[in-house]
Design brief:
The complex is a heterodimer of chains A (238) and B (350). With 238 residues, chain A is an alpha/beta fold. Chain A has one domain (33-55, 75-235): Rossmann fold. Chain A has helices at residues 45-52, 97-104, 111-124, 126-130, 141-153, 171-186, 198-204, 222-227, 229-235; strands spanning 5-16, 19-30, 34-39, 59-64, 67-68, 82-85, 159-163, 190-195, 207-212, 215-221. The radius of gyration of chain A is 17 Å and the shape is globular. In chain B, the strands form 3 sheets. In chain B, strands 1-2 form a two-stranded antiparallel ribbon. In chain B, strands 3-4 form a two-stranded antiparallel sheet. Chain B has helices at residues 2-27, 29-54, 63-76, 87-106, 114-134, 174-198, 200-210, 212-217, 222-248, 258-271, 276-305, 312-330, 339-349; strands at residues 77-78, 83-84, 155-156, 159-160, 165-167, 170-172. Classes of the chains: A alpha/beta (238), B mainly alpha (350). The interface between A and B is medium-sized, with 32 and 22 residues.
């Protein structure tokens, strides 16, 4: 067990009926790190993340600071400082941008601080400010992704779980979203990122895990993974 | 200036609402009764709107809560058990028990959505009706299909609501008196619903409707919030049911058939899911139009063709059905939709 680990999963398993999607994996994320989990379609990445966020039943231990996440209900995680940006963004399509962001602070009561955070998010994501009164369903895919990240940040998380933020976005927009991710990380938020776009993920993160059919097969620094011939042939298309 | 106009407008509306039963009485007491029933349907629609419109949980058995409220009133204020509790004790009990029934329905269906939830709630509605039909043996609780008769009417400060009273030279019939108390209740119910729509809990309901996973991640306890939607929605049905029993003086299981659930749902959808004013408009329209047709279809046919071509009852429902279809075709988000729905549908058309 890492002495400084913020999040640590031990022997995490996820089953759908008789099918094992995650077959007993262990990994850790340290405070302030930007770590990614890469792998092909169906490798079990999203299941891993959903298990961490307590959205699906799973076996194994999840340690987070001094708490055992595997014993908490999903809606309590944000109170412990852990926010999920779900796959496919999960914005509230019929609420306005501002209402969406306000929902991110649902568990908070400090109105003045919430207002400050909202201002801060709008400074960081000016595109959202322009569309503050617009219904979120009418935003472009990239803007929706920004909104989903902004909404998660409104909960003041220490650990942000990001599920495939590049999914379905134009390459230019992907760049922008990752720019935001780097900014958020630079502000001291620890990030655990699940991504299919292996190259971009490894270029952004400091460390990475590679997942294959439910198991973690490689774990190394991002630089080493980028240089690893196995990663290069399987995920970087070389 | 605009304030003055606003207040003048409100005063006019208030005056019109107060004078309405007197005008209607001159057209026949039946119309006052129809109006009272329409107000009950507004209660029901607003209750169902919480579940379907705000929280997005399709409920096809909603009338069961109306039944619970009606039977609670009937059992506690009739010779059946020899109990004659005052209405201000019974109505809260009815609301509470209906709310409890809502939670009982909600608990096992928390993981269900859409069509699956619809089927389970439909079954629940039927279970309640069939229970009422059969709880006459071995202990006679509901008196079975014969229903419960001679239910006490309302009685406030010694004034009975079932007889005519004369005040300031104006005579107020029983139904007219019920109208006033229903109007008062209606104002309370509308106020509660408007507050709910804008409240934190109202926003949580909308969030669950939109994306449950994201709602959980935002810290919403989706289980409790859904149960609350079921319970609150049901409690409005319970109040309406209690008033129904008091007004009619008689309840039997056949008042609580599936068609009634479907009707209330149609009111919510046609009026504009999620918007309190739209739902009220939907409930009033769907209550009055069939009654209006009842009185006009027959004379209209005789005038046009000289004789009855189509059975009035059949034609009435045909016109009603066609009107529903046309409304949904040309105003898919309802007559007076919630701003969010309107924006969404407008988007799609553009």
């Amino acid at each position: 067990m890492l002495a400084t680990a913020l999040l640590e999963a031990l022997n995490l398993e996820v089953h759908y009926g008789g099918i094992a999607a995650v077959k007993g994996i262990s990994f850790a994320v340290e405070e302030g790190e930007l770590v990614c989990l890469i792998g092909a379609n169906g490798a079990g990445k999203t299941s891993t993340l959903k298990a961490l966020a307590r959205m699906i039943p799973a076996q194994g231990e999840i340690h987070y600071r001094n708490a055992r996440l595997d014993r908490l209900p999903s809606h309590d995680l944000i109170r412990h400082g852990l926010a999920l940006v779900p796959e496919g963004r999960g914005i509230f399509a019929r609420l306005t941008v501002t209402e969406n962001l306000a929902m991110g602070a649902y568990h908070r009561n400090d109105k003045a601080e919430i207002a400050l955070d909202l201002q801060h998010i709008y400074e960081m994501l000016p595109r959202l400010k322009e569309r503050a009164a617009q219904v979120a369903g009418t935003l472009s895919g990239g803007e929706q992704q920004m909104l989903a990240i902004g909404r998660a940040l409104m909960g003041r998380p220490q650990l942000l779980l990001l599920d495939e933020p590049s999914m379905g976005l134009a390459p230019l927009m992907v760049e922008k979203v990752f720019e935001v991710i780097r900014t958020v990380a630079a502000q001291g938020v620890t990030i655990f990122l699940v991504e299919q776009n292996a190259r971009l993920a490894l270029q952004t993160c400091s460390r990475g895990y590679v997942m294959e059919s439910g198991l973690i097969t490689l774990a190394d620094s991002a630089a080493n993974l980028l240089a690893d011939p196995r990663v290069r042939t399987a995920y970087l298309g070389e | 200036m605009t304030d003055l106009r606003k207040y003048a407008g409100m005063a006019l509306i208030a005056l019109a609402l107060l004078a309405l039963p007197l005008v209607l009485t001159s057209m026949g007491t039946a119309w006052v009764r129809i109006t009272n029933l329409a107000i009950l349907f507004v209660f029901l629609s607003l209750g169902l709107n919480i579940v379907v419109g705000m929280a997005g949980l399709l409920d096809l058995g909603y009338i069961a809560f109306y039944a619970v409220g009606a039977y609670v009133y009937a059992l506690l204020a009739s010779p059946h058990f020899g109990l004659h509790l005052p209405f201000w004790v019974i109505l809260p009990i009815g609301a509470l028990l209906a709310g409890l029934a809502g939670a009982v329905l909600g608990a096992p269906t928390l993981r269900l959505r859409g069509d699956y939830l619809a089927i389970v709630t439909l079954g629940f509605g039927e279970i309640v009706r069939i229970l009422m039909n059969n709880l006459s043996a071995p202990f006679n609780i509901t008196n079975g299909p014969k229903g419960i008769t001679r239910i006490d009417g309302l009685n406030v400060a010694g004034m009975s609501f079932n007889s005519t009273d004369t005040l300031f030279g104006i005579s107020f019939t029983g139904p007219a008196k019920y109208y006033y108390i229903l109007l008062l209740l209606l104002l309370c119910v509308i106020a509660v619903n408007l507050r709910l729509q804008k409240s934190r809990i109202g926003r949580a309901w909308v969030a669950i409707r939109e994306d449950e996973l994201a709602a959980k991640s935002a810290g919403i306890n989706t289980r409790n919030v859904k149960l609350l939607a079921f319970a609150m929605g049901a409690s409005f049905g319970g109040i309406a049911g209690g008033m129904f029993a008091a007004m009619q003086g008689f309840v039997s299981p056949e008042s609580f058939i599936l068609q009634e659930s479907v009707m209330v749902l149609a009111m919510v959808v046609l009026g504009g899911m999620g918007n309190v004013w739209g739902v009220i408009a939907g409930a009033l329209l769907l209550s009055f139009v069939p009654e209006f047709l009842r009185y006009t279809v027959e004379p209209a046919q005789k005038m046009l063709f000289g004789r009855l071509l189509v059975e009035p009852e059949v034609l009435r429902m045909l016109i009603f059905g066609v009107a529903l279809v046309l409304t949904m075709r040309f105003r898919p988000a309802g007559l007076w939709p919630e701003a969010r729905h309107r924006r969404e549908f407008g988007e799609k058309r553009a």
